[in-house]
Design a protein that fits this description.
With 367 residues, the chain is α/β, with parallel strands linked by helices. It contains 12 helices and 15 strands. Bound molecules: ligand 164 and magnesium ion. The site of magnesium ion (MG) has 6 residues, from loops.
């Protein structure tokens, strides 16, 4: 597979409504769109998903743009690729920068699938032609959260995730459970707690949550193991798991019962596939996490989520969950709580060129 040209576009769009977590309030989103072309004019699409500031991981749009332009694209242009699974190996000498790496690696997966004239989800070993849709409530105000949940259930979502933090946990969940006693409900703490909060977290066991995501430190595996022994709710790790080694450590130490696999956080689709396989072999449940991303990244998530182990609805919602108008055509739509995997080659969605142009802040072409 010879790539003859690459285009990087930094795009920005306001969210339809603010997205609040224990760490940050997101009101607009930047990302990097990667378009790579082969000699026959086919285009592979990728999206690098770091935020504009390093509140979730250490990467930002600016660091990722530098990595793509100055380090990663030169490697890709120099080394012809036989199969996308080789890309992460060719980046092994480069430390970290997983979201930058994932942006170009996913574009190569899309281009390769188009060359093979296959939908990407079939190429990665998908077993279902639709994925269950989960949604994240972007407010921690109990009244607003309950109103939002009613709206999302109307739209058919099967699983709801809410953000919690110390001082806004028990009351919020108690109010939600009063209205929705049997809802498939999970929480994400984004590392807002410590082992001093064991009693607070034990109290949440009464709400029969599917899981509690990342209660402790962003790079912790040991203390999560201590906490998991003290609470009934399964711990799900997100930020702590950036590599297969992290996943192996968490499995060995029994730090969690679930892992949220995000293609960007783990450095690409091949790493995500290997993590899926490792977790399933060790009875660790997995689901596909989201990054408040645009349609190209979400399309890659959909392909991944068709694999057998992704039985829990992921943070895979419709384009309209965050955007007035997405950068892809058709947009991603949730019907009866599911998203149909596209039948087109590659990711199965096209770029909405006029929309992409409108939201592009800056772009460069490399060859
Ligand atoms: O993509 C979505 O629908 C929301 C994903 C989501 O909850 C998160 C995205 C990025 C950082 C966090 O706030 C949070 C997470 O930790 O999973
Ligand atoms: Mg999370």
């Amino acid at each position: 597979m010879k790539i003859i040209e690459a285009q990087l576009s930094i795009i920005k769009m306001p969210l339809r409504s603010p997205f609040s977590t224990s760490l940050s309030k997101v009101t607009e989103r930047e990302a990097i769109i990667i378009e790579i072309s082969d000699e026959e004019g086919r285009v592979g699409l990728g999206e690098a998903v770091p935020f504009s500031t390093p509140w979730y991981t250490e990467e930002t749009v600016k660091t990722a743009y530098h990595m793509l332009k100055d380090i990663l694209l030169p490697i890709i242009f120099q080394q012809p690729i036989q199969h996308p699974r080789e890309v992460s190996k060719s980046f092994e000498a480069i430390r970290g920068n997983h979201m930058a790496k994932s942006g170009i690696e996913t574009a190569i997966w899309d281009l390769y699938a188009k060359q093979q004239r296959k939908p990407l989800w079939e190429l990665v070993g998908g077993v279902r032609d639709r994925v269950p849709a989960g949604v994240v409530v972007g407010t921690q105000d109990p009244k607003e959260a309950i109103e939002n949940i009613a709206m999302y259930l109307q739209e058919g979502y099967k699983r709801v995730k809410v953000k919690i933090k110390p001082g806004n946990d028990y009351h919020l969940l108690n109010e939600i459970r009063k209205h929705y006693p049997t809802l498939d409900l999970m929480v994400d703490a984004n590392s807002a707690y410590s082992l001093n909060d064991v009693k607070v977290l034990q109290a949440l066991d009464e709400f029969q949550l599917l899981m509690i995501e990342q209660p402790l430190g962003i790079d912790d595996i040991v203390e999560h193991s201590i906490l998991q022994e003290k609470i009934k709710t399964p711990i799900c790790l997100d930020e702590s798991i950036v590599s297969l080694h992290d996943a192996k450590s968490a499995i060995h130490l029994k730090s969690c019962g679930v892992i949220n696999i995000k293609i960007g956080r783990v450095g690409g689709l091949w790493n995500a596939i290997q993590m899926h396989d490792l977790c399933i072999a060790n009875n660790i449940k997995v689901w596909c996490g989201g990054m408040i991303e645009f349609g190209i990244s979400k399309a890659h998530n959909i392909a991944l989520a068709t694999k057998s182990g992704f039985t829990i609805p992921g943070d895979i919602s419709s384009s309209s969950r965050y955007w007035e108008e997405d950068i892809i055509s058709p947009e991603i739509i949730v019907r009866n709580g599911e998203i149909k995997a596209p039948t087109g080659f590659g990711i199965g969605y096209e770029v909405n060129k006029s929309r992409l142009e409108k939201v592009t802040l800056y772009k460069e072409i490399f060859s």
